[in-house]
Write a structure and sequence with these properties.
The chain has 70 residues and is of the alpha+beta class. It has two helices and two strands; from the N terminus they run αβαβ. A two-stranded parallel ribbon has the order 1-2.
């Protein structure tokens, strides 16, 4: 369980660091899709890290597009 939590934290950190390099305007929206959206630990970690930077996190499911549709 600890190893999975660590892997989720590392994945979330990598995503947020990549977003930070994009020079996005404050309050930007991040839309997650794919199988990772079913990983509650990963989504919680992403939510914490993304919202702490003043951005918003949602899923494609929330917008009416199934996360599995890619």
């Amino acid at each position: 369980a600890d190893q999975l939590a660590t892997e989720n934290a590392l994945a979330a950190r990598a995503i947020v660091e990549a977003l930070a390099r994009l020079s996005l305007a404050p309050g930007y929206d991040v839309i997650a899709s794919g199988g990772g959206t079913h990983n509650r630990c990963l989504m919680d970690e992403l939510h914490t890290r993304i919202t702490s930077r003043g951005a918003n996190l949602t899923t494609s499911d929330d917008l009416g597009v199934a996360s599995s549709t890619k």
